[in-house]
Amino acid sequence: MTAARAGLESAEELYRRRVTRILVDEFPKYxxxxxQLHRDSEVLGEVGGIVNSVVxxxxxxxxxxxxxxxxxxxxxxxxxxxxxSSSMQ
Length: 89
What we know:
The protein is of the alpha+beta class. The protein has helices at about 1-5, 10-15, 85; strands spanning about 40-45, 50, 60-65, 70-80.
């Protein structure tokens, strides 16, 4: 397997591109890839407001006037998921 790995990019190049390489001798039955979601946040107070997602513009959290009595940081985390990946079992 070492010969097959010889043509791969260096660990430094992968780190620069924020890529993690996982090498295995046998493919596991289950394999999960977990990533950190993008978080959009705003500080909202008594006047309310809207927090929009940069990842998916159709997603927004709307807070009406008077919902908060003090300033609160409200965050929205969104990740896109394809239909094919959500139906895998």
